[in-house]
């Protein structure tokens, strides 16, 4: 089994890499929504300050607007780099390189390629993928070009992570705690946290709406409706991401372990803009029996690895109606799936 790229053809000749890179280049709602939120936060903050005289509401909305602005600028910056390196990826193959991770934080990883006098800043790389980089000490590189744009691929992933050359080589920093967590466990925890936070925010914002409505004594319907806006947005978000609910089971399944390798075939997938898909998969156990499973929130990267290798590891009880984990232990490739028959 190999979770490495083919070095004799161009990077984007791999269908999974091509799919993931196309999603990075796309100008979808996830990249634009933060900037829309900035405008909404500014308008409501102005109203809260001038019509209501509420510094608390105004301050909170300005903070939310600033966070959304940073998210929007970052997302568009990453998209810009992906647009600039697509030509290289279509023409050039990956080159194996030894690397050293210098430092990493949310959304940004600085690393040095052995033999090079400069460093690369890689965007969007997760802590789980950094952990793989630190463990293996190698990656695959396309570029950099004359403008300093490049792409990096990590063992166990099909992603062409966007990167650019830094003007100076930063000092190496201690390994942060998230990078020390086993990659599969880290990926499972992150996927579980995303849906759990959305579930927690809904009652929090409902309480905030009640506080806003009663902050001047009595109950003001207009203030309640204004305060209810975040709760309504979270409610709509939950409807949109309800396919992630099974991810809450992932950390417990991964901690329990007992991974068993089985043959696997991906039959169909309904792909989304967030690089996940609803996938129908057949598992073939050692005794020759076949089991059908459905993963409603499977990463495209994981499905690509299953297609490439013809196998997957399973954790949990493989019985009809049960939720199991599908993945590749040691790598940030994991998803929840329900056994359907």
Break the fold down into its secondary structure elements and pairings:
Layout: H1 15-25, H2 29-50, H3 55-91, E1 95-105, E2 108-113, E3 119-123, H4 127-136, E4 138-142, E5 149-153, E6 161-165, H5 183-214, H6 221-240, H7 250-256, E7 260-271, E8 276-284, E9 290-299, H8 300-309, E10 311-315, E11 323-327, E12 334-339
Antiparallel strand pairs: 1-2, 1-4, 2-3, 3-6, 4-5, 5-6, 7-8, 7-10, 8-9, 9-12, 10-11, 11-12
Helix pairs in contact: 2-3, 4-5, 5-6, 5-7
> How many angstroms separate the termini?
27 Å
| Main sheet: strand order | 1-2-3-6-5-4
Counting H and I runs of at least 4 residues, what is the number of helices? 8
Q: Judging from the principal axes of the Cα atoms, what is the shape? A: globular
Low-confidence stretches: none
Helix residue percentage: 40-55%
* Average residue-wise pLDDT: 87
Largest sheet: 6 strands, antiparallel, barrel
- Our Rg estimate from Cα atoms comes to 22 Å
Total count of strands: 12
Structural class: alpha+beta
- What is the total domain count? 3
Please provide the ordered H/E string of secondary-structure elements.
HHHEEEHEEEHHHEEEHEEE
Strand content: 15-25%
Transmembrane segments: 32-49, 55-76, 195-216, 222-241
Organism: Actinokineospora diospyrosa
Keywords: Membrane, Transmembrane, Transmembrane helix
Protein name: PH (Pleckstrin Homology) domain-containing protein
How would you characterize the overall build of this protein?
This is PH (Pleckstrin Homology) domain-containing protein. The chain has 341 residues and is α+β, with helices and mostly antiparallel strands. It folds into three domains: 11-179, no CATH class; 180-245, no CATH class; 249-339, no CATH class. It has eight helices and twelve strands. A hairpin with a 6-residue loop joins strand 4 (138-142) and strand 5. Helix 4 packs antiparallel against helix 5 (183-214), helix 5 runs antiparallel to helix 6 and helix 5 (183-214) packs antiparallel against helix 7 (250-256).
């Amino acid at each position: 089994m190999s979770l490495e790229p083919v070095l004799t053809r161009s990077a984007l000749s791999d269908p999974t890499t091509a799919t993931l890179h196309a999603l990075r280049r796309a100008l979808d709602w996830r990249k634009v929504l933060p900037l829309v939120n900035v405008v909404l936060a500014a308008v409501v903050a102005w109203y809260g300050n001038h019509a209501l005289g509420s510094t608390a509401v105004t301050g909170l909305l300005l903070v939310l607007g600033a966070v959304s602005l940073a998210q929007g600028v970052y997302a568009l910056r990453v998209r810009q780099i992906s647009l600039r390196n697509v030509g290289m990826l279509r023409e050039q193959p990956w080159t194996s390189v030894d690397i050293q991770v210098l430092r990493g934080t949310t959304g940004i990883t600085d690393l040095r390629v052995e033999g090079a006098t400069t460093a690369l800043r890689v965007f969007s790389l997760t802590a789980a993928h950094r952990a793989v980089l630190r463990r293996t000490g190698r990656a695959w590189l396309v570029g950099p070009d004359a403008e300093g744009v490049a792409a990096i691929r990590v063992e166990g992933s099909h992603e062409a992570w966007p990167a650019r050359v830094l003007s100076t080589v930063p000092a190496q920093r201690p390994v942060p705690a998230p990078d020390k967590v086993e990659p599969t466990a880290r990926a499972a925890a992150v996927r579980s946290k995303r849906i759990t936070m959305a579930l927690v925010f809904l009652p929090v914002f409902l309480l905030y709406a009640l506080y806003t409505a009663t902050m001047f004594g009595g109950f003001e319907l207009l203030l309640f409706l204004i305060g209810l806006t975040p709760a309504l947005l979270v409610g709509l978000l939950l409807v949109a991401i309800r396919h992630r609910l099974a991810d809450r089971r992932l950390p417990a399944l991964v901690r329990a372990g007992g991974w068993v390798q089985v043959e696997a075939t991906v039959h169909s997938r309904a792909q989304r803009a967030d690089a996940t898909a609803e996938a129908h998969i057949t598992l073939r156990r050692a005794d020759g029996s076949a089991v059908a499973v459905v993963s409603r929130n499977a990463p495209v990267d994981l499905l690509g690895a299953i297609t490439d290798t013809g196998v997957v590891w399973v954790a949990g009880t493989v019985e009809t109606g049960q939720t199991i984990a599908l993945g590749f232990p040691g790598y940030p490739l994991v998803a929840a799936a329900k056994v359907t028959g």
